[in-house]
Amino acid sequence: MCAVQRHFLGWDKSLCDLVADFILHDKLREMSSSPIDLSDKLIVVPTRQAGRRLKDALVMHCSAHKMAMLAPEIVMPSYFFTEPADFGEANRTLVLAIIADMFLHDGNKYPALIPPTVRNITPEWALRASIRIAELRDELCEGGFLIRDVVKAFASEMNEPERWMDLDRLENELLERLAHSGLKDPCECKIQRTRNPSLPQYIRHIIIAGVPDPTPLALHSLQSLSENLQIDILVHAPERYAEYFDEWGCPLEEYWQNAIIDIPDEQNIILVANQREQAQKVLQLLSRHSNKFTPDEVSIGVPDRSVIPFLEMVLSDIGFSTFDPAERRVADTSLYRLLASFVDVMREKNYHTVSTWLRHPDVLNYLYQSRRLSPDRVLAELDMLRIQHLPQSFEEMLSIVKTDRAEESYNNLQIALSFLQKQINYVHTRPIQKWLPDFLQTIYASKIIKQDMPSDAELMEIAELLYMVLKEFEHLPLFVSFPDLQNHGVIEALFLKRLGECQYHPQPPSPVPLSPLLEFQGWLELPWNDKPFLILTGMNDEFVPGGHMEHLFLPDALRTKLKLRNSNSRFARDAFVMTALIESRRSNGQVYFILGKNTINGDVLKPSRLFFLCDDKSLIKRARNLFAQVKEESGNFAPSISVVLNPGLIPELQQLSGKTVWHVTAFRDYLKCPFRFFL
Fold first, then answer.
1. What is the rounded average pLDDT of the residues 578-592?
2. What is the rounded distance in angstroms from the CA atom of residue 298 to the CA atom of residue 519?
3. What is the pLDDT of residues 526-552, one digit of tens each?
4. Is the model's pLDDT at 644 over the cut of 60?
5. Cα-based distances in Å from 204 to 73, 83, 221, 679
6. Which of 8, 147, 294, 666 would bridge with 239, disulfide CB 3.0–4.6 Å?
């Protein structure tokens, strides 16, 4: 039987370098001319970005010794229960649709799950409820539980036993319907995989590298695998801290909730007004330390991602290129907004939804490329239609534009609305897996994809995700009352939900000569960053360690009983991470912590509780500094021009000088920038 062994690497260097040294130590000592073979190792890291950094570090270490390397397999903890998927395993879309269908047709079986304010269960409400219940099952599954397991073990301790009994009844019905159709429940499959985990035959050694909070489900797999494989746990801390970590290298709550975090200088904790001021403070720190640290030695942490746009703006002004490597949600992309606006038109055919869809850049580009319609004219006619007629519905808009009026020509808008009408008619007679690809093919028919362009590479990845989600809808009519869901737009809403929660990998920008690249790092990526000068923004309690991990059905107290991730475990993890970030730079680096007093909208923010893990002598002074009054130094002024512009009366200006009526879109462009308006 193989053992699980912990190794404490110290924290005199970044975690990435320490892990690379540990993995290559014995291999480099062999001084062989053969490539360094790491292909039998499975290395587990907390995030995908950490895996990329570790692979780069291993390559650099081998290159420095002029050695080739056979790369290891680097994965995240979810690898042990998500791959490979079982044959016959139901997909997430089907599970959501079945739960929604159960609420629609048998909602009276689960009275404790239906609020008193819901008198009639609509398809929209059923879908929202199914999403909440699926999320609950996912979170319980991370601990190795189904709903029935929780009810069986904790029924006597639950505050709302009726609600949990209904949840149990609903889950049993779901499992029966899946089994009747010859399908397996994905949560049950994940739990089963951890009981009998299987790895590729060539894997002989597992290394858990700096993973401070693996899920219980991943630990169940590792416990089973430890019977036949060697497992090494690498901890980013000195040996003297061994008693403050459990057998899997996770920080113990009892110690880290009360540990003292020794911040070298109180001046390194900086309170400013808002996100804009945080970005300005980063700029000042870079300037102040420019003689000590080069741009290649700087790292910026962004636990609060709302700071990123302000950082991008101020850093680009001084010649820096920036890149946020964090995975992005498809819901934040232009393609998703195009589909969402079209689904809104299908659901509510009114002026607002039609106007939103027509204003989408990809729609305007299609109308220009395929119909030769000027975007300016389409939008101007759309505004004129609104001003002159105040139409409420899509049908009313069509009726007006088809009326022949010499003084009100809507030729461009009529073509655009007729195109939209054609698309709606096409959609109503076809399932989503048929009409959606055809719709996108029409809109993007003139687009030329260039794989070397970062934006096009991202679009291709998003298209693959879209195709994957569409595949989940192929057999949906066999298991649910498809017409009931489709007629109410629930199928489209379910598709948008599934597509929107998918994530894609952003592509780094093309290199710009003489423009250093700064990457923004998330909280759990920071220990893997080897840059000596670290500036952490967004150090507010809402982001580090974050608020209470609450769920409608799963309060924090129940999380603790189930030994799931909870507020206390997250606090202990983040206290350890913050300590490691400071200690790894204490001798040859610098760490600054910047936090905001308010958001840019004026909402109050709280300082991170981690700052109060200090000795009694420092506590009062630090509290005064963290709750002090601050004012916005840069001011929130409207953009202005610093030089007098006197371009003279150009012909276009002469034509407009006597004009008394402007279209709304033209007036908007003028307010945005009068100078560009007249160019």
1. 94
2. 9
3. 999 989 999 999 999 999 998 666 677
4. no
5. 11, 18, 15, 68
6. 8
Identity of residue 414: Q
Q: How many CA atoms lie within 13 A of 206 on its CB side?
A: 32
CATH number where 300 lies = 3.40.50.300
Domain count, the chain: 5
The sign of the torsion formed by the CA atoms of 446, 451, 452, 456 equals: positive
pLDDT average, residue stretch 277-301: 93
Structure tokens at 157: 């301790």
Checking if the pLDDT of 276 tops 50, the result is yes
Confidence of residue 86 (pLDDT cuts 50, 70, 90): low
Residues 619 and 519 in one domain: yes
Same domain, 199 and 52: yes
Mean pLDDT of 624-651: 63
Residue 348 shares a structural domain with residue 482: yes
Nearest by Cα to 49 from 515, 511, 523: 523
Does the pLDDT at position 63 exceed 90?
no
Q: What percent of the chain has pLDDT over 90?
A: 54
Is the CB of residue 238 less than 8 Å from the CB of residue 10? Answer: yes
Using a 10 angstrom Cβ sphere, with 0-12 exposed, 13-18 middle and 19 or more buried, the burial of residue 655 is: exposed
Q: Is 189 among the domain residues?
A: no
Look up residue 177 and give its amino acid: R
Mean pLDDT of all residues belonging to the chain: 87
Distance linking the first and last C-alpha atoms of the chain: 77
Of 136, 276, 323, whose CA–CA distance to 596 is shortest? 276
Q: What is the pTM of this model?
A: 0.85
Is 371 part of any domain? Answer: yes
Using the CB atoms, write b or e for 412-424: b if 16+ within 10 Å. Answer: bbbbbbebbeebe
Residues 6+ apart with CB under 8 A from 30: none
Residue 67 lies in domain:
4-82+194-250
632: in domain: no
Dist. CA 540–CA 606, nearest whole Å: 6
The alpha carbon of residue 394 and the mean position of all alpha carbons in its chain are separated, in whole angstroms, by 35
Residue 634 pLDDT: 64
